[in-house]
Design a protein that fits this description.
Blueprint: E1 2-6, H1 12-21, E2 25-29, H2 33-40, H3 51-61, E3 64-67, H4 70-76, E4 79-82, H5 98-107, E5 115-119, H6 127-138, E6 145-149, H7 159-164, E7 169-172, H8 176-185, H9 187-190, E8 196-199, H10 201-232, H11 236-244, H12 265-278, H13 282-296, H14 298-310, E9 318-322, H15 337-347, E10 351-355, H16 360-366, E11 371-373, H17 376-379, E12 385-388, H18 393-396, H19 400-403, E13 411-414, H20 421-426, E14 430-433
Parallel strand pairs: 1-2, 1-4, 2-3, 4-5, 5-6, 7-8, 9-10, 9-12, 10-11, 12-13, 13-14
Helix pairs in contact: 1-3, 5-6, 10-12, 10-13, 12-13, 14-15
């Protein structure tokens, strides 16, 4: 099948590569000519596990190519995926769908035959209805252009695996013809037993928001409990293992840490909270806002733990932060808890050096006031404290004995409960982990 993917970012590039992997002929579209040139050369402008290999393979065969021309994409494809960005709006509470409607307006004049537009971007409920009306009005094909909403549930760092082996596919369809097109696109995945949930478009739009809002609440819940464990001298790791055995709760997502970040979860929780208020569900909005407040408090909570470990304020202290991306497996630093903590310590007078195995270039663009080190060994030189803030295996595998002679003081605060604390302590380090009892 011939498909286009409009928007080549953290969502669009993995989706285009995955569609080529399952056998489709794919054309990706983006306005950035430099990015298009890199993609056509098989070069990946973002870091995502497994993506460079797929990109190289399928651009080489010609099954996957990229262009800046929507006219070319309209002529080529019968199905168009919309994967453009929907950042949070100026009000800080809703989605800016300007890129979605802008792409549709630019594509519409070239749609002269029946086609299906499949929205992947996360949007406010009602967007697909409004987009369908716009395309029917502006397209030569009129009402033969239909809009389906097919929200993505990708975890950054796992985008390829989550596209090729998702736990479910959700589609909000306006007609049987549109549903048939979706089934044809995803036929190789459905043949592997992936469940397809077919709903009306409004339900599909709400499903994405509800899923991320629940995950945000679950993360905020366990982080709030981690604060309680710190105050009580209890162990959040043992607590989560115990309550996670309850099938009504589940262990997934119950990992105490410095908070959730990235380009999706924070904005999705904000927008879903705003939608709850708009729809008059004030109690739901209050509950969701509480989860946001817990997440917003995490940099301050981390700073409190760091200063307790130091026994003094961070002013004048040389600190290394391990991690810049908001999670392992990606170079995305949008709303990164690691960088928020690093920036807060910098504001409080610390000298902060950040190391990340993949995200140093993207972090440097957002926080040029911080110092950066490309190599792990260099990052800890003369440090008085190390803060582990992103769960890269690279940090779990670090050798505490080899690192000890390089630092000014062998002290580590593990905000991800990632390392073997006992092994580090045996190597002479003072270790403090989030939500776990302090040990000498």
């Amino acid at each position: 099948m011939r498909v286009s993917v409009i928007g080549c970012g953290h969502l669009g590039i993995p989706h285009a590569a995955a569609m080529a992997e399952i056998g489709h002929e794919v054309i990706g579209v983006d306005l950035d000519q430099a990015k298009i040139d890199r993609l056509n050369a098989g070069e990946c402008p973002i870091y995502e596990d497994g993506l460079p290999e797929l990109l190289t393979t399928h651009t080489a065969t010609g099954r996957l190519r990229f262009t800046t021309s929507l006219e070319e994409a309209a002529e080529f494809a019968d199905v168009h995926f919309l994967a453009v960005g929907t950042p949070i709006d100026a009000d800080g509470r809703s989605y800016d769908t300007g890129q979605v409607f802008g792409a549709a307006r630019a594509l519409a004049p070239h749609l002269s035959r029946p086609t299906v537009i499949i929205g992947k971007s996360t949007v406010t409920v009602g967007t697909s209805r409004d987009l369908g009306a716009l395309l029917a009005r502006l397209s030569p094909a009129g009402e033969d252009v239909e809009v389906v909403w097919n929200p993505e549930f990708l975890r950054e760092g796992h985008a390829i695996d989550d596209t090729l082996r998702p736990d479910r596919i959700v589609v909000g369809v306006p007609s049987a013809r549109a549903e048939a097109a979706v089934r044809q696109v995803y036929a190789p995945l459905l043949a592997n037993g992936i469940p397809l949930f077919v709903t009306d478009p409004a339900t599909a739009e709400l499903i994405k928001g509800a899923a991320n809002a629940y995950l945000g609440m679950k993360i905020s819940f366990i982080n709030g409990v981690a604060d309680m464990c710190t105050a009580a001298g209890a162990d959040v790791q043992q607590l989560t293992e115990a309550i996670g055995l309850d099938p009504r709760i589940g262990r997934g997502g119950l990992n105490a840490g410095p908070g959730y970040g990235g380009g999706c979860l924070p904005k999705d929780v904000r927008a879903f909270t705003a939608s709850a208020r708009t729809l008059g569900a004030t109690e739901a909005a209050t509950m969701l806002r509480a989860a946001e407040e817990v997440n917003e408090s995490r940099p301050t909570a981390a700073l409190r733990l760091i200063e307790q470990t130091l026994g003094r304020p961070v002013d004048g202290v040389r600190i290394t932060v391990w991690g810049a991306s908001f999670k392992a497996g990606t170079d995305d630093v949008r709303e990164s808890p690691a960088l928020a903590i690093a920036a807060l310590m910098h504001q409080r007078g610390a000298t902060v050096t950040v190391h990340d195995p993949h995200a140093v270039p993207t972090a440097l663009r957002r926080h040029p006031e911080l110092d950066y080190a490309e190599a792990l060994d260099n990052s800890v030189q003369d440090a008085q404290l190390i803060v582990l803030a992103t769960e890269w295996p690279h940090f779990r595998e670090a050798d505490p004995k080899a690192l000890a002679p390089l630092v000014a003081a062998p002290v580590l605060v593990d905000l991800r409960n990632l390392i073997d604390a006992d092994a580090w302590r045996m190597a002479g380090w003072t270790v403090r982990q989030l939500g776990r009892p302090a040990q000498e």
